[in-house]
């Protein structure tokens, strides 16, 4: 095994900045940025939030437009769908495409657009945080365009949806109802819950992802058959959270940590435009208490997801359990414990490349297959932000150096094998390029401060 210390050589800043900018320009469609031209030819929700964070260093106005385009597809109930489909892309270019989701018809009662085709599920709520950072990049341009006053009501509605219809457990946390929603698609954490799901017939769908990426790197056909079944059940119940018989309902720590961080950002936005920030601060405080009370494990020193169907905590050790480091006001003792876990044998900070998505010591770990072990750049960016905010400057600096070196060396790969550092998935991936630009612009001492 080649260690990170033996291979790292920090990329020249100018070359890295130029290359990352070229990726974003190449994936720009005129109104938004696709994750990649090949595998992901539409606009993805949390991708666009991360992309806007990096675009603000290239063009704050374009970063604003990235978020505005996404928010224009918001449903009447407040949800931001996880995909906004580009009508110029053939339906068969990506599965499941607009013909599967049928948002305008199946989502009509939930307020889906009659004109913009979307999916019906959601992704992690990074959007208010992204909007605040985009505003901060050029406040004068933001004020001139009225950016914050225009996005604030939509972001507030998004958070109300998550805190209302999606509090399926009644404990003050948002729930996810499909493995794609927390963004950790085929994590071993979901194996037991997915085993309950009757797969869709294998002949009823045709995967397109395997045209662009190795089958060894992607979720299995059985995973996909279960994803399809869950999505179809939700669709066939009108995307109604109360009416759908959810066989998969999870309180995920990273999803809720990002909601809390964004609630703090929404409070900052409210103050800036003269709205009442108090409700946002109170909701963030209450959600932090719920996150710690319901998902923190002081013995394992990590946050565990909770399966609402069984009521039990999910035992697996996932990168999701470290991402609550981004929560402002997280108790210092918990932040210290998370840093210990990050450096320990399960995640090996400094001994492997970035932060693996799953426990290195677990039998389920697979360093090549999507979220079952590979290291991802977006989760590394979030953990870097959290470490810096909680005073873990040395660890944050190490992770920042790794990120920049590996992003450049891998041609902005989607993800990496954590032991070798080899690129996996798609190259020239937009959020990898965008977040590299952000770390280039932001010193470790600042830690991407709010």
UniProtKB/TrEMBL annotation:
<keyword id="KW-0378">Hydrolase</keyword>
<dbReference type="Pfam" id="PF22422">
    <property type="entry name" value="MGH1-like_GH"/>
</dbReference>
<dbReference type="GO" id="GO:0009311">
    <property type="term" value="P:oligosaccharide metabolic process"/>
</dbReference>
<dbReference type="GO" id="GO:0006487">
    <property type="term" value="P:protein N-linked glycosylation"/>
</dbReference>
<dbReference type="GO" id="GO:0004573">
    <property type="term" value="F:Glc3Man9GlcNAc2 oligosaccharide glucosidase activity"/>
</dbReference>
<protein>
    <recommendedName>
        <fullName>Mannosylglycerate hydrolase MGH1-like glycoside hydrolase domain-containing protein</fullName>
    </recommendedName>
</protein>
<dbReference type="InterPro" id="IPR012341">
    <property type="entry name" value="6hp_glycosidase-like_sf"/>
</dbReference>
<dbReference type="InterPro" id="IPR004888">
    <property type="entry name" value="Glycoside_hydrolase_63"/>
</dbReference>
<feature type="domain" description="Mannosylglycerate hydrolase MGH1-like glycoside hydrolase">
    <location>
        <begin position="40"/>
        <end position="432"/>
    </location>
</feature>
<dbReference type="InterPro" id="IPR008928">
    <property type="entry name" value="6-hairpin_glycosidase_sf"/>
</dbReference>
<dbReference type="InterPro" id="IPR054491">
    <property type="entry name" value="MGH1-like_GH"/>
</dbReference>
<comment type="similarity">
    <text>Belongs to the glycosyl hydrolase 63 family.</text>
</comment>
<keyword id="KW-0326">Glycosidase</keyword>
């Amino acid at each position: 095994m080649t260690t990170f210390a033996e291979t790292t050589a920090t990329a020249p800043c100018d070359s890295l900045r130029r290359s990352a900018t070229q990726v974003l320009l190449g994936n720009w469609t005129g109104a938004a940025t696709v994750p990649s031209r090949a595998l992901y030819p539409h606009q993805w929700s949390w991708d666009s939030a991360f992309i806007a964070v990096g675009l603000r260093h290239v063009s704050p106005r374009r970063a604003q437009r990235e978020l505005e385009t996404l928010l224009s597809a918001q449903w009447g109930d407040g949800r931001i769908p996880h995909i906004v489909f580009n009508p110029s892309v053939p339906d068969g270019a990506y599965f499941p495409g607009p013909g599967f989701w049928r948002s305008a018809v199946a989502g009509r009662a939930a307020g889906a657009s009659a004109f913009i085709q979307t999916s019906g599920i959601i992704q992690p709520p990074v959007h208010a945080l992204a909007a605040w950072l985009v505003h901060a990049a050029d406040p004068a341009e933001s004020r001139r365009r009225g950016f914050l006053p225009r996005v604030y009501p939509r972001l507030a509605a998004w958070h109300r949806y998550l805190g209302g219809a999606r509090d399926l457990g009644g404990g003050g946390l948002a729930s996810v109802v499909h493995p794609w929603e927390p963004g950790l698609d085929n994590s071993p954490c979901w194996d037991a819950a997915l085993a309950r799901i009757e797969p869709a017939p294998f002949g009823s769908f045709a995967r397109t992802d395997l045209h662009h990426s190795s089958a060894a790197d992607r979720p299995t056909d059985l995973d996909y058959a279960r994803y399809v079944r869950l999505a179809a059940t939700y669709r066939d119940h009108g995307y109604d959270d109360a009416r759908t018989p959810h066989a998969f309902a999870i309180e995920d720590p990273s999803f809720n940590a990002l909601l809390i961080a964004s609630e703090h950002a929404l409070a900052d936005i409210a103050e800036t435009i003269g709205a009442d920030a108090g409700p946002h601060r109170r909701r963030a405080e209450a959600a932090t208490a719920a996150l710690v009370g319901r998902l923190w494990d002081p013995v394992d020193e990590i946050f565990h997801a909770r399966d609402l169907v069984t009521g039990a905590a999910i035992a697996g050790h996932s990168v999701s359990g470290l991402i609550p480091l981004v929560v402002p006001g997280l108790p210092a003792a918990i932040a210290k414990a998370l840093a210990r876990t990050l450096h320990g044998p399960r995640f090996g900070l400094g001994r492997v490349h970035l932060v693996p998505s799953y426990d290195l010591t677990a039998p389920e770990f697979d360093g090549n297959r999507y979220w079952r072990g590979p290291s991802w750049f977006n989760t590394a960016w979030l953990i870097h932000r959290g470490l810096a905010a909680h005073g873990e400057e040395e660890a944050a600096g190490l992770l920042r150096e790794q990120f920049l070196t590996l992003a450049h060396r891998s041609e902005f790969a989607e993800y990496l094998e954590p032991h070798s550092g080899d690129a996996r998935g798609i190259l020239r991936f937009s959020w990898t390029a965008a977040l590299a630009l952000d770390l280039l612009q932001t010193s470790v001492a600042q830690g991407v401060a709010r």
